[in-house]
Amino acid sequence: MNYENIFDAHAHYDDKWFDDDRSTLLDNIKSKGVCGIVNNSVDLKTAEKSIEYAEKYDFMYAAVGFHPENLDDMPADYLDRLAELTKHEKVVAIGETGLDYHWDIPKDKQKKVFEEQIKLSLDLKMPLVVHDREAHGDTFDLLRKYRPNALVHCFSGSVELMREAVKLGMYISLGGVVTFKNARHSVEVAAEIPIDRLLLETDAPYMAPVPFRGKRCDSSMILYAAEKIAAVRNMGVQEVLNITCENAKRFYNIE
Length: 255
Ligand code: NI
Known about the structure:
8 strands; binds nickel (II) ion
């Protein structure tokens, strides 16, 4: 069956895993039903790459920001540089940024840089893409304090935390994890979240869904997450794709 309106709210096509066949893959991805991709950056170099792809492909957009794992080579004027990049018409968000307590990265620096980018998104009135890995407490302390127009990507919190995010006016995105056997939280969240706050993503090339787990992921594989979500919500797969595509366009102010 052919599906349409697959919108990938969060991917990384600059990753070297795509180096051998990036163009071929992206040249043909619309024929697999993909209508939109937001390439998220992790530093200035990947931000420029994201913009390059967005210029080449009508369905691609860019988010520009510093990921907590990429704080070592940050220029002192990074906020100005990000602000400059957002003047490009296809830059739709600040991101990805946030907190990652899985790795041993100084928490004070992570929080400082996250807070600065939250403020940048508010100053520029742009959406914010948030990375929260094993850092729910501190991440949500800052989100509560500033209430940015945010998407918490690869959401890994409980149903209660999802409800709080929704109450704060935020969106969440889910991807391949909902197809994993041990993904109880994600599946509960997928079943309970108000459908108008849900976006789909791959985080490609990572987080490939079952049956491709561990392999390279691309945006067309969102279908597997959509099938799982449709099943737990008693909805049609195309209906889930249509609604999440509309949600992504609303969140990122596309068209
Ligand atoms: Ni990511």
